[in-house]
């Protein structure tokens, strides 16, 4: 069996939702794991002019899970969910934002996302997003794009951090 569900031969012929879930979970894991083995200082290292840090990427990934799989599905407001109003604010790190705390929060958010989508089909419409009603299929595609982009950011930042150790 392949170490990645997306490359497991059983996934090749699985239904589309199963395939989407496999790819989403791989990207979720990559973002979660980008912090493994880093010090708190390294995880907070600001290497680009934006607010993008490895710790901030995991915090932002938690935010987008809640936007797309809580707000969009449950129709609860961001205030009710307890998340920032804007994506940019989701990168702001607080003192309590540690590697352990944010990895745990991210894991919980991903598990909640899986639970909320388990009974939904790709053609089911979610109504709680600011763009208006959207099929779950679009949400999955958007999340794949979002997480893939941030996995790339994380790869580059982590490479720079590990190179600085040498």
Automatic annotation (TrEMBL):
One of the Pfam families matching this protein, by short name: MST
InterPro entries the UniProt entry points to: DinB/YfiT-like (IPR034660), MST-like (IPR007061)
Gene3D superfamilies (UniProt xref): dinb family like domain
Name of protein: Uncharacterized protein DUF664
């Amino acid at each position: 069996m392949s170490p990645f569900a997306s490359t497991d031969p059983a996934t090749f012929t699985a239904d589309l939702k199963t395939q989407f879930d496999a790819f989403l979970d791989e990207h979720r894991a990559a973002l979660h794991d980008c912090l493994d083995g880093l010090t708190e200082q390294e995880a907070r290292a600001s290497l680009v002019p934006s607010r993008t840090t490895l710790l901030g990427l995991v915090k932002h990934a938690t935010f987008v899970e809640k936007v797309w799989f809580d707000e969009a599905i449950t129709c609860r407001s961001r205030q009710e969910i307890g998340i920032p109003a804007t994506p940019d604010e989701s990168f702001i790190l607080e003192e309590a934002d540690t590697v352990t705390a944010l990895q745990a929060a991210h894991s919980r958010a991903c598990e909640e996302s899986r639970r909320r989508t388990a009974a939904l089909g790709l053609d089911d419409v979610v109504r709680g997003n600011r763009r208006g009603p959207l099929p779950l299929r679009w949400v999955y595609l958007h999340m794949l794009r979002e997480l893939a982009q941030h996995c790339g950011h994380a790869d580059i930042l982590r490479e720079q951090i590990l190179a600085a150790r040498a």
